[in-house]
Amino acid sequence: MALRLKAIGANPECFCSTLSEVQQQGLDHYRQLIDLHLQSSSQQLLGAFSKTDQLQGVIALERLNGALRTHRGRIWGLLVDPDCRRQGTARALCQQALESAKQMELEKINLELTGEAVAALHLYRDLGFRIESIEPLAFKLDGRYLDEIRMSRCL
Q1: Distance CA 91, CA 123 (A)
Q2: Of 20, 18, 109, 15, nearest to 62 (Cα)?
Q3: Domain 2-154, CATH number (from 3.40.50.300, 3.50.50.60, 3.40.50.620, 3.40.630.30)
Q4: Residue 29's pLDDT is what?
Q5: Which of 22, 38, 93, 119 has most Cβ atoms within 10 angstroms of its Cβ?
């Protein structure tokens, strides 16, 4: 939770949740999410750690529900500690998530990001993701509108 709070605090325009929403969810919410991912074969939560075992980043991968959608997955929740950015952590997490998706025999991966998450947009494009749609005015942060970009990649 501390990592999420720090990342949202540093760049609130890059997230689909506000700092106050995350603070209200509390630690139990995140413990339940972690437990859910640990118990599920269709969901994974991956982390990047420093040599001293400090959490530097996380990413989640899940298989979509429903018989007609189980060939698809979704990446969400990519976070990197602001102090650890520009070191390849996000790229390594994304590559591991894509490798996990292949092991889960997924055929297509979807993700969403705000239009302000320029570094993430470039990273995802470098990894082969393509924009499928843009929803203008999807979020409103401090009186400013943010677009939501939906991207996908076939495996």
Answers
A1: 7
A2: 109
A3: 3.40.630.30
A4: 64
A5: 93
In degrees and rounded to multiples of 5, residue 136 shows phi and psi of -65, 150
One-letter identity of residue 92: A
Residues 114/12, Cβ–Cβ less than 8 Å = no
How, if at all, do strands 108-114 and 72-80 pair? Answer: parallel
The residue ranges of every structural domain in the chain are 2-154
Q: Which of 60, 61, 58 is nearest to 84 (CA)?
A: 58
Could you give the CA distance from residue 150 to residue 57 in angstroms, rounded to a whole number?
22
Q: Which tens digits make up the pLDDT trace of 29-88? A: 666 766 766 667 788 989 999 999 899 999 999 999 999 999 999 999 999 999 999 999
Return the ∠ at Cα 116 (arms to 110 and 119), rounded to 5°.
Answer: 70
Residue showing tokens 């630690």? 27
pLDDT for residue 19: 79
Helix and strand numbers, DSSP H then E, in the chain:
4, 6
Q: Which amino acid is at 64?
A: L
SS3 135: strand
Element (H, E) at 62: strand 55-63
